[in-house]
Design a protein that fits this description.
Strand order of the largest sheet: 1-2
Helix content: over 70%
Radius of gyration: 20 Å
Shape: globular
Number of helices: 12
Distance between the termini: 23 Å
Strand content: under 5%
Order of helices and strands: HEEHHHHHHHHHHH
Number of strands: 2
């Protein structure tokens, strides 16, 4: 958390760009560019500024989701249960009480992802572009998250327009490949930019792959992976369970069912 606090304030405090005392020039390691936007708040309120940003973004995104659910005529009790589980469930607790780091810029992926998904749903181009750019600027792998949400949305649109056709046929559509290749290019450009800033030294991805190759046959590796996977499932069980209940309740409304399933995908992503 202290590293992100220093990075966000670097340009306000007239310090070297995104410099912090733990890893030095952090912009050579990751593209954490959205954190610079929180500099004035962090200058005024210190670390509380980071949590104010997190709370503000979540409030905006959850309010937008609630509005969309209301427009889709979802019953009031269902909306309140859904938002209650989201706001007070284990995911929100983890977001506001990260045990190891305290606060990480990746936590803003959730609100930006929800806003991007809603902008796509409402077919408003400018907000979708802004939210998409925000996801990309959180970190260099943000393009992967944006691609998943974009492809999920387009897949649902394909299902609605061509009911009865299997979803796998969408893989042969020109639009699928345009979206996939487009976001893939954005991801590669982000990775190349990180490499350029670091003089193309051994990237963290290569280090991670080397460690993976050296440990993939170790029992402790799979034990740790199983533990992490289990923790992730536990975090998502309440929200997925509530969304599943709502899907059953809206069995006569295909549009609402697809919308809720897509919300599950956006939250899980």
């Amino acid at each position: 958390m202290y590293a992100f606090l220093q990075m966000s304030r670097s340009w306000v405090d007239d310090r070297p760009f995104m410099y912090e005392n733990v890893w030095g020039y952090h912009h050579k390691i990751h593209n954490y560019y959205t954190v610079l936007l929180w500099g004035p708040l962090c200058r005024a309120f210190g670390a509380y500024g980071l949590f104010a940003v997190q709370a503000g973004l979540l409030l905006i995104s959850y309010a937008a989701v609630n509005e969309q659910l209301y427009k889709r005529h979802l019953q009031d009790w269902a909306r309140y249960v859904l938002l209650g589980v989201v706001l007070f469930g284990p995911v929100s607790f983890w977001l506001n009480d990260h045990p190891n780091i305290g606060w990480h810029t990746e936590l803003t992926y959730l609100p930006f992802a929800l806003l991007f998904a809603l902008a796509l749903l409402r077919r408003v181009r400018l907000p979708a572009i802004i939210a998409g750019i925000a996801i990309i600027l959180v970190k260099e792998d943000g393009a992967v998250l944006a691609a998943m949400i974009h492809l999920a949305y387009e897949g649902i649109q394909f299902t609605r327009k061509r009911s009865g056709q299997p979803l796998w046929k969408w893989l042969g559509q020109r639009r699928f490949w345009l979206i996939t290749i487009g976001w893939g290019v954005v991801f590669l450009l982000g990775m190349l930019w990180v490499g350029y800033k670091n003089n193309f030294a051994e990237p963290r991805l290569q280090i991670a792959l080397t460690l993976l190759a050296g440990n993939i046959f170790e029992k402790v590796f799979w034990s740790q992976m199983a533990l992490l996977f289990g923790h992730s499932i536990i975090l998502l069980v309440p929200i997925i369970g509530v969304l599943g209940l709502l899907v059953v309740q809206t069995k006569n409304n295909l549009g609402n069912r697809l919308f809720l399933l897509w919300r599950a995908w956006a939250w899980a992503s």
